[in-house]
Amino acid sequence: MDAAEIPLKAPDLVIETPPSDVEQVERVLIDASTRIPVLMFYSSAIVWLLLGTVLAMLTSIKMHSPDLLANCSFLTWGRLRPAHVNVMIYGWASMAAMGTAIWLMARLCRTVLRHPLLLVTGAAFWNLGVLIGLIAILAGQSTGYQWLEFPPYVAAILFTAYLLIISWVVLMFRFRRGEQIYITQWYLLGAFLWFPWLYAAAQVMLFIVPVQGVLQAGINWWYANNLLFLWFGAIALGTAYYMIPKVIGRPVYSYHLATIGFWTYAVFSSWTGYQRLVDGPFPAWMITASIAATILTIIPVATVGLNHHMTMQGYFPLLRYSPTLRFTVFGAISYTAFSAVGVLISLRSVNRYLDFSQASIAYSHMGLYAFVTMILFGSMYYIVPRLVEREWRYASLIKLHFWASAYGVGLMSLMLLAAAVVQGSSLDDSTLPFNEATQSILPYLRGRSLAGLLMTASHFIFAFHFGLMLFGLGRTASVPTFLNPVEAEGSEPLL
Amino acid sequence: MKGLTPLFVGLFGTFMFSWIGLTVVPNAQIGRLDPQSLEEDTDIYPMPQSGMAERGRQVYNANGCIYCHSRWVRADYAGSDQDRKWGERRSAPRDYIFERPVLLGKMRTGPDLSNIGQRAPLEDENAAPGASPSPAASGAPATAAASPAPAAPNAQGKQPAPSPAVAAAGSKGAAPAPAPPAPAGSPASASSPAATAQQPASTTSLGSENKPNEAPMYSAAWHHRHLYSPRSVTLDSIMPAYRFLYDKRPISGQPSADALKLTGKDAPPEGWEVVPTYDARCLVAFLISSNQSHPLNEAKPPGGGGAAPKGSPAPAPAASPAAPGK
Q1: Quick check: B266 contacting A, CB < 8 Å?
Q2: Is residue B157 predicted with pLDDT exceeding 70?
Q3: Do B22 and A290 touch (CB under 8 A)?
Q4: What count of CB pairs under 8 Å joins A to B?
Q5: Which of B21, B27, B137, B210 is deepest in the core (most CB within 10 A)?
Q6: Domain boundaries, chain A
Q7: What's the complex ipTM?
Q8: How far is CA B28 from CA A215, B31, B98, in A?
Q9: Is there a contact between A222 and B23 if contact means CB atoms under 8 Å apart?
């Protein structure tokens, strides 16, 4: 807390030290000022992650063993599923993303974080909102709008929390130093501006002045897709734009590409949503507009992907050592895969088969997990040691975490996509009995549970490791924890 | 990028574009629909639903039925929905104007429910020779089959392999001649309990009338039984049971009229009965009220005529009997 009062730079003290040392001191001071709020966001996020994982396992297992824990109203499948989704979205991903965003902003604005209490209060309110929302869903008070199942009074709490958090962005910007606004800041500013608008628009149009009939579903999916792209996706891409150049110690390949990628991302991905309801009871132009926008998201995918790739060019061997880089690059590659799947399943010819199938579950997991969550993990591996001034204790645990997560989400996506193809083609063949479609995906759903086990293991490993760090049990060393011992090859990786 | 102004104008503008384009404009276009009134206002559709059905919508919502069941039918060129007889025309925005929340759904892990209120259970149609038209026939074999049938979910729950015992038990009583290939044993074992469930349906108020010679609609009793014990109706269903919507209580005096007719391991012990709670009855009222069969000018059924005769039980191949629809 005192860190907030420390002046950024005491010129008379450090005037004779070389500039790099000044920057070093400055960074340490900034990191120290963000310590309490960011660690609070991270530890809350990880608690929600574990809870959400347990809910996910139950949801997944009950899918193929429907009699498990079936006689308890608050453990019925139809309540566990939205509970899992909302805990992951608002508890885990939002809190982790905000924690990372706060740290990145402080670093990029080159200013210490003022009034950390504001953020701590905001995080506490946010936690309260998610907790009440979770209880409400399990008690059967879901609103029935996907990704928005928390009742409206919970939305009010979350919104209040968000206002406390956003007020810090304003402060940060007032006191920022330097003219240049880095790419990461575009994404973060975008996310922090878009989210409240999106959330408020959805709340107003669904609950306060509810729209009529099917439009509720349209706005629901518009919200869900925009939340995925403009909130989680924007923060994740911004983080990748920071972490990749930072870890390899090389500037971003092209600023122009980044500009194109950013603005096309903002325009096209915000128009998606209705492609989830192809041939639904809507005027066709709405659905077509969203399909077109989804196809056009290839442009930001290509430019961002190319930019990251060219930045990494020649530095791929560093994936062997740096945990942050490995997670971030996995996430960045997943962004491409996720978008490709998104384009594919939005096409009318494909959607005819895959609509109503497990494909949309695969799509959501590829977006929220393989892309967003993996990048957030990567950022945590970078940021947490700088906050607690300890290094990660066990390289082996990081490796386990990475491989269990990567194989887990990979297997899950493959299982669900394969299930979607099988299920979709059975559904489309009206001579086959309906149950055939559901029966045929059961093996894949069991495979999905297996993938879920891998991911559960990885989350508990990560939480344990994070706990060690939190309680000061990390390594005290001047060298970061590498995944593999660095050979004395002369070229020492910059982590 | 230098300067905050262009950045903020851009951020604001892009999202404004999407917000107006995908929420405000659609709301202007289809946000103020009125019911369709034909024949000089005597034929108004849709109408607001009854209190019980509305409450049933909340129960449907609270228990997350939406995550497995959609409630919209696609056009005939866009999917097999109409071939599956989930509806005779595509759904249109006007069908939903009174619905809140709208519960369109995105998944079909279970079948579409937009017209569940006017659909007939497939197994009853297909097992027609044995089950539905002959209360006399089904009365006896159903009770006879009652003892072997309930064992089936246990024995076979996982894999619908042919089970001679069950198939035999069913076909012996119910349908001597055509019960034939019975791939899953399910048409027999599934339809006979359903048939028993049909009998009380005519006595309960919520059920549609069951004329012996017509394929019956899904009755209230069928829904209750299905909600209480899905796998006693459809062997390989993966729907969770909603037993918490039912009360198991000792019979005081006369057994309740709405008590579920359960057999085998689902049956309550002697002197006890299982009755639906108010929520369960609302839920079933909601399901039975789900009906988009009324013609709409903007969504004509394909081919103009009613789609009912097309694709009726007749052409259904051998695989079809195993498809108890749910």
Answers
A1: no
A2: no
A3: yes
A4: 240
A5: B210
A6: 26-178
A7: 0.90
A8: 11, 6, 17
A9: yes
